[in-house]
Amino acid sequence: MMKRVGINMIFLSMLAMAAPAYAEDALVCETQSVHFKWREYRCPLTVNASAQNIRFKADFTGSHDDTRLSISLSLDGLPVTCGKDSKTWLNGEDSEASDVSLECKFVLDGAAGSQRMLRAVVNIYHAGFLGIQLSAP
To answer: What SS3 string covers 58-111?
Structure first.
């Protein structure tokens, strides 16, 4: 019985770690899958009257020389093209603070009021996952 309680506590702590810290302009994502090597999210988006800048960000800790991280996004099943100032992968970055982030910036457009579905997959190798944030800055 105690073993089952321990396993449940570990699972709940993993889910808590995956919960993002939202700001006022933050959008909501639902966790679809949690695994120690990857996470998958679904984020419903509503199109505004004008093009809207969107930023998906994933934060990690413990980055070192053999860390490999990536994010991939799709909108309604089609790949998202991230802006040129985005960083969607990392391979072997060693920093003093060891905290790193990946992000994809893109423009959401379409018919005002239409619903779109963003799917995000975060791949993790040799780093601690801290969380995600989806915002419309």
So the answer is: EEEECCCCCCEEEEEEEECCEECCCCCCCECEEECCCCCCCCEEEEEEEEECCC
User: How is residue 124 written in tokens?
Assistant: 């993790």
pLDDT band at residue 6 under the 50/70/90 scheme: very low
What φ, ψ does residue 8 adopt, rounded to 5°?
-60, -40
Comparison of pLDDT for 113 and 15, the residue scoring more: 113
Distance, CA of 33 to CA of 135 (rounded, Å):
21
Domain range summary for the chain, segments of one domain joined by +: 2-135
Q: Does domain 2-135 have CATH number 2.30.30?
A: no
Rounded to whole angstroms, how far apart are CA atoms 87 and 52?
Answer: 19
Rounded to whole angstroms, how far apart are CA atoms 63 and 94?
6
